[in-house]
Amino acid sequence: MKELSERLVQAVHSAEGKLRKVSESESNTPVLKGGWSRKQVIGHLIDSASNNHQRFVRATLQGSLAFPGYDQDGCVRVQAVQNAPWSLLLSLWTDYNLYLAHVIANLPADKLKAHCKIGEDKPVTLRFLAEDYLTHLLHHLEQIGAAA
User: Fold this and answer.
1) Can you tell me whether residue 113 is helix, strand or coil?
2) 2-143 — its CATH code?
């Protein structure tokens, strides 16, 4: 998991440099089909970090996990991500992901096969959740022009 953690750190540092060059007004402009702005995408990625943080820790502690699904549109709306300062969102996203990289690096090898059920999705392992987390993050960074 240390290699996955290192890849996450590299992706975050690379993206942060690019995203810090985006102005407040540019961060508000819709960039995705459906109208999401960079702020909303980063807000969604903060939610992803938060949800996955809990999934990783709980699956490790409990040996398995049953966790609710995620309403991405509702969460972005309720948290008023579009109204938050761009610099706040970037700092939170960056620091949360660097901490999450630390958590991933320290996941016990004997817990990586823990059975995890998220919402109505088919069960996966803790290892899959961690690997999929990085895949998901990279996908969204590419959408907003911040991938390496």
Assistant:
1) coil
2) 1.20.120.450
